[in-house]
Amino acid sequence: MAGGLLILVAVILLSSGLLPVASAVDVAERTWSILLFVVAATVVAELAAAAGVFDAVADRLGKAAAGRVVVLWLLVVALAVVATVFLSLDTTAVLLTPVVVLMARGRGLNALPFALTTIWLANTGSLLFPMSNLTNLLAAHTLGLDAWEFAALMAPAAIVGVLVPVAVIGVWQRRAVSGPLAPAESQPLEDRTLTLGAGIIVAALLPALVSGLPVWLPACVAALLLGVLVAVRKPAALSWSLFPWQIVVLAVGLFLVVETAHAHGLSDGAAPFVGQRTSFLALLRLAASGALLANGIDNLPAYLALEPLALDPLRMAALLVGVNAGALVTPWASLAILLWHERLTGLGVRLRWPIYMAASLVVAVVTVTLAVAALSLAHP
Fold first, then answer.
1. What is the rounded CA–CA span in Å between residue 219 and residue 238?
2. What is the pLDDT tens value at each position of the chain, 380 positions in all?
3. Does residue 235 form part of some domain?
């Protein structure tokens, strides 16, 4: 609904001349490959879930936990980080959440720390590689960085983005993530051939995404291979709903509307608030501005609004810290939070927004501050 309205607004802006045709063409040339990757990666994640890959991995984690809840939780942390870094934050928030929640319930555990792990790490952990977050893909394209160059820039902040939420959950939910782990019956695979084949395709995709190839290419190949495999073994899982139409339409609308705002002086108006320097305080100011804007209107438009003021690599890194790791507090700060909450509601997990927002505020403030400090120290 919102995406459709934004597209309508963009068409009106374009037809009225408020959005120059040349600017719209530039947006299309810049974003087609990014949006193609988003579509392909989403299809890969959805088909992998339908093939039982995530369920099988979760079952193996339970066996590897050595009878301790804390070990199981730390293994979930590792799984959430890998899923976020390589398959994007939406994969972790939307597809991994129900898997780990059901896994926790099946062992008589409180599902809250596992649910918080997926959503906080989906956002704060999405700093390392371009494919971890749509904002990262845009930033890497703007800076002209490949996956490893981007990782070299963002690694200090990415490490902080993992450690802080894990520390907060470990302290706050220490009783829930401690003690012996009750055994659970191993769930038989619905179709071993399907799960194994899908797992091999996903495992091959991960290194391909950081191989130097354009990320949309291996993602599209993996999506095609998974589509063929699922069509043969589980055809009922194939549907048009696999494609993230709403996200793509929303993104296209935002790209064009914000580009119109930039054409009419948005950057000049925002410049006094975010500064231009690369000192620690200047970077923190930029990151805080991105976080505030993200929690006010969503992280993607926040990034698009401030990107022209962050073209220096270090300033771009600080902006990403703000709009990714800082986009935790309000339910609409990132689409991942809304989708995560929808999944929790479907699972019957109660979430008190005031408590969530208060805890997320602590995580966001500490993460953004320490991540910017880490960037400043690593890139003086």
1. 17
2. 665 677 787 788 778 878 788 878 887 888 888 888 888 988 988 899 899 888 888 888 888 877 888 999 999 999 999 999 998 888 888 888 888 888 888 888 888 899 999 999 999 999 999 999 989 999 999 999 999 999 999 999 999 999 999 999 999 998 888 888 777 666 677 888 999 999 999 999 989 998 888 889 999 999 999 999 999 999 998 988 888 788 788 778 877 887 787 776 777 777 777 777 889 999 999 999 999 989 988 888 889 889 988 889 999 999 999 999 999 999 888 888 888 888 888 888 888 889 999 999 999 999 999 999 999 999 87
3. yes
> Would you call 106 exposed, middle or buried from its count of C-beta atoms within 10 A (0-12, 13-18, 19+)?
middle
Q: Tell me how many degrees the CA angle 292-252-335 measures, rounded to the nearest 5.
A: 45
Structural domain contains residue 13: no
Buried b (16+ CB within 10 A) or exposed e, 310-330: beebbbbbbbbbbbbbbbbbb
- Tokens 């190949």: give the residue: 221
Segments forming the whole domain that contains residue 272: 18-378
Helices then strands, counting H and E runs in the chain, come out as: 18, 0
Residue 68 φ/ψ, nearest 5 degrees: -125, 135
Count the residues in the chain.
380
The answer to whether position 8 is within a domain reads no
How many domains, in total, are found in the chain? 1
Count CA atoms closer than 13 A to 324's CA, side-chain side: 38
